[in-house]
Write a structure and sequence with these properties.
Elements lengths: L1 H4 L5 E4 L2 E4 L7 E2 L28 E6 L7 E3 L2 E8 L6 E8 L5 E7 L17 E2 L6 E4 L4 E5 L5 E6 H5 L13 E3 L2 E8 L9 E8 L5 E5 L14 E5 L2 E7 L4 E6 L5 E6 L10 E4 L2 E9 L6 E8 L11 E2 L5 E5 L10 E3 L2 E5 L4 E6 L5 E6 L10 E3 L2 E5 L4 E8 L2 E9 L11 E3 L2 E5 L3 E5 L27 E5 L2 E4 L4 E3 L1 E5 L5 E4 L5 E5 L13 E3 L2 E3 L7 E9 L2 E9 L6 E2 L8 E2 L5 E2 L13 E6 L2 E6 L8 E5 L8 E9 L8 E6 L2 E6 L4 E5 L6 E5 L8 E9 L6 E9 L10 E5 L9 E5 L7 E10 L2
Parallel strand pairs: 20-24, 38-46
Antiparallel strand pairs: 1-2, 3-5, 4-36, 5-6, 6-7, 7-8, 9-10, 10-11, 11-12, 13-14, 14-15, 15-16, 17-18, 18-19, 19-20, 21-22, 22-23, 23-25, 26-27, 27-28, 28-29, 30-31, 31-32, 32-33, 34-35, 35-36, 37-40, 39-44, 40-41, 42-45, 43-44, 45-46, 47-62, 48-49, 50-51, 51-62, 52-61, 53-58, 53-62, 54-55, ...
């Protein structure tokens, strides 16, 4: 997999010389907002004005559920879809022939451990890399995947298991974006150390191999998750992007280094809609949550933004004086606006399509199209607006004499919904409904396939002086016995790479003077190679690279692998919790655990218990091992505080399955996503009693199926021979990180865990 991903950097020998491998380029509608990053097509396309199902312009339909936007590259349609309705739901990346709708290939994947409800899947969109033709997407539960043009998986990263990405019932997962050699994602993550508190963070991966190049925390504590799409531009020689966040800001981030440049507080909650650049000094943004200076909801604003890259401390916080104008008529929760001929166009939450003057912000007209609008965004091409609405109508609208004229009203399938935006390719309009992907275009002639546009030439290495270093990966996790080679790149003042300096750099473990926890990763350093020995302990810390008076760091962890055991006796106490008890903190490498668990003295030994000081954390799942782990038995002692009327839930995560004692419900339960899998057997738990919970996942020797098994018994008694619960899965998760789980309704009763053990299957 890694070998295939590095094809772009290989060379082949021909006639005694070396020539670069040429990968297929891609051109078309490569991301959901199109080549202009704003949903506007400037091509002359002769698009249909009627999108009637079964009508003269209906070319084909492909039966699959969708809530996002297809992308098209060189005659191939790529779309994120899902199949099934209940326990059989699977997301998929589908690849179709744009002329016929015939399926060329697909890759299916299933949800796990997410909070997604009501089949809110496939809201995002793939993105195609113009340089290589490779396709990238992020599943609803946060697995980032890279595929070749022909469907070969090149690499994947599990944001949930590797960086503590949180999921939410609305299933909001946006589209990845590509900039240069990077593919960039964002989400609310609760990682470790200084990045343990939940924040909206951005992660940039090397598009060829999935290595983490940088991560960025540009905002403050979020009240919502966000799936805004970054918009790229140049700022004083730097490459930057602008995007909304879950903490209600519009932010500017250096696309090459992740440095937060500036932020502006727009909303009390998440900003989900895409932003618009209306010039080098003007940005237009919209939101649908509570305003920062009133109790009203929603607003369209124009901001005066910096035209030079700011010097000094960053991010710069823009004040209210940055606001040029505001318009409270525009209330859009996630529908993204358009900018056409100095006019801003947007659908709003109450189902209308509005236009405003981009210079003054004044509303020019309003056209009522439906009862409401959720998610779907309009798009513009060939002099017309194509406007899908939540209730399933798609409007084609022209503006004449500065007034809207509805050219056609097109009803999609009965009872369906439109949640994505249209995409354009040649003379075709492509649109997803919750029932199918549809292609519309003139039937009277052969579909037009636009000529391929050569991809942009890769940015040449800078020749400017090196002023900063970048260590890749920016963060790593090792199982005992594994190693990681670090790379060090010299960057110029704008963040462009000048050259690799790995072999000239020196490396050492590093503890920042400001670190709250003075900790080093339990690994040896041999030049740029970090190696965890077979007996390495759970640990976390930084490795610092130095070159020519410059320094940069990579964060790393040694995580729990097969053979790991923990009684927590080595963890110090000495802190005070909300009730005055002497407590400590869980192992530093546990993702997002420091603010959710404490170490307690109990019954003459130390145990971990979930914290009750914040109702926000009454439910927590924290991963402790590697995302690629498989075929392991995970067990621990578990207990719930309480009485016969009020108890809590405690459990273990094994290979993407949660096995939990739900004490109030008197059951032992196996689940993944609760709407996809939730099976249980009765179990009468007694409060303040230690039980032993033993879990394993077994895959069949042939086929895709397998079993999830668990035993639960009073630990003072012998282990029973039979499994307490066995759950059959026809498509079993093949790998996944171990983790711990707690749920204390209303933060009333604590749960405890002790004597963790991970072992190979017997």
């Amino acid at each position: 997999m890694r070998f295939a991903a590095r094809l772009a950097s290989l060379v082949v020998a021909l006639s005694g010389g070396f020539f670069p491998v040429t990968l297929p380029a891609a051109s078309g509608w490569l991301n959901w907002r199109g080549p202009e990053q704003n949903g506007v097509s400037t091509a002359k396309q002769a698009l249909p004005t009627s999108l009637e199902l079964g009508g003269p312009n209906h070319r084909w339909s492909y039966k699959a559920h969708g809530a996002g936007t297809p992308v098209i590259a060189d005659g191939r349609v790529y779309a994120m879809a899902y199949y099934g309705e209940t326990t059989d739901v699977e997301e998929a990346l589908i690849c179709l022939d744009v002329k016929t709708g015939a399926k060329l290939w697909e890759a299916r994947f299933r949800d796990f451990l997410s909070d997604t409800t009501y089949n809110r899947y496939a809201i995002g969109a793939p993105v195609v890399d113009a340089e290589t033709g490779n396709v990238f997407l992020e599943s609803t539960c946060g697995v980032i995947m890279a595929f070749s043009r022909d469907g070969k998986k090149l690499w994947e990263r599990s944001m949930m298991e590797e960086y503590g990405r949180l999921t939410f019932p609305n299933g909001r997962t946006g589209s990845l974006v590509i900039e240069g050699n990077l593919v960039i994602a964002d989400g609310i993550t609760a990682n470790w150390g200084a990045d343990g508190p939940a924040r909206n963070r951005f992660y940039a991966f090397d598009k060829t191999n999935g290595e983490l190049v940088w991560f960025s925390t540009p905002g403050t504590e979020p009240l919502d998750n966000s799936f805004g799409t970054p918009v790229f531009a140049d700022l004083g020689g730097h490459r930057v992007f602008y995007v909304g966040t879950g903490c209600g800001h519009v932010v500017c981030i250096n696309a090459r280094t992740g440095e937060p440049v500036w932020r502006f507080k727009l909303s009390q909650s998440g900003v989900n809609s895409g932003v618009l650049l209306a010039g080098p000094d003007r940005l237009i943004a919209i939101h649908g949550k509570e305003n920062v200076d009133s109790t009203s909801q929603g607003r369209l604003v124009a901001l005066r933004i910096p035209t030079e890259y700011p010097a000094g401390p960053k991010p710069v916080v823009l004040g209210r004086d940055a606001e040029i104008w505001r318009n409270d008529d525009f209330i859009a929760f996630s529908s993204s606006p358009l900018l056409v001929d100095n006019r801003v166009y947007s659908t709003i939450a109450t189902g209308s399509f509005l236009a405003a003057d981009a210079t003054t912000g004044k509303t020019l007209w309003t056209e009522k199209l439906g009862a409401d609008q959720i998610h779907a965004s309009p798009a513009y091409a060939d002099g017309r607006f194509y406007v899908p609405m939540h209730e399933g109508n798609v409007f084609v609208i022209e503006v004449k004499n500065d007034k809207p004229v509805i050219v056609s009203t097109n009803k999609m399938e009965a009872g369906t919904a439109c949640l994505g935006a249209p995409a354009f390719y040649g003379d075709a309009v492509l649109l997803f409904t919750k029932d199918a992907l549809h292609c519309f275009g003139p039937k009277a002639k052969t579909p037009v396939i636009p000529p391929s546009i050569p991809p942009p030439a890769p940015l040449a290495a800078s020749t400017a002086p090196i002023t900063q270093l970048q260590v890749v990966p920016a963060e790593f996790a090792l199982l005992p016995g594994q190693s990681q080679r670090l790379q060090v790149f010299g960057l110029d003042a704008t963040g462009r790479r000048v050259r690799a300096v790995t072999e000239e750099a020196t490396f050492a473990k590093f503890v920042p003077p400001t670190a709250l926890v003075k900790s080093e990763v339990d690994a040896t350093l041999t030049g740029p190679v970090v190696a965890a020995g077979p007996d390495a302990k759970l640990s976390a810390g930084q490795v610092q690279a130095k070159w020519n008076g410059l320094a940069a760091v990579s964060r790393g962890r040694v995580v729990a692998g097969i053979g790991h055991r923990d009684t927590f006796e080595a963890l110090p106490l000495g802190q005070k919790n909300e009730t005055g008890d002497s407590v400590g903190f869980p192992p530093l490498p546990w993702l997002g655990a420091r603010v959710k668990w404490h170490v307690f003295e109990k019954e003459g030994g130390k145990v971990v218990g979930n914290r009750l000081d914040s109702i926000m954390f009454m439910r927590t799942m924290n991963f402790i091992g590697g995302a690629d782990m498989k075929d392991y038995t995970f067990e621990a002692d578990v207990m719930t505080d309480g009485n016969r009327r009020i108890m809590s839930n405690v459990g273990l995560v094994n290979q993407r399955y949660l096995i939990a004692l739900a004490a109030n419900n008197r059951i032992l339960e196996v689940s993944s996503n609760h709407e996809r899998l939730k099976e249980s057997v009765p179990f009468e738990a007694v409060p303040n009693t230690w039980y032993r919970l033993k879990t394993r996942v077994d895959r069949d020797k042939q086929g895709e199926g397998g079993w999830v098994r668990a035993k639960l018994w009073d630990r003072s008694k012998p282990e029973p021979a039979a499994w307490t619960i066995e759950v059959r899965q026809e498509k079993i998760h093949t790998h996944g990180a171990p983790g711990v789980f707690a749920f204390s309704p209303q933060s009333l009763k604590r749960v405890f865990i002790d004597n963790l053990a991970i072992s190979a299957h017997e």
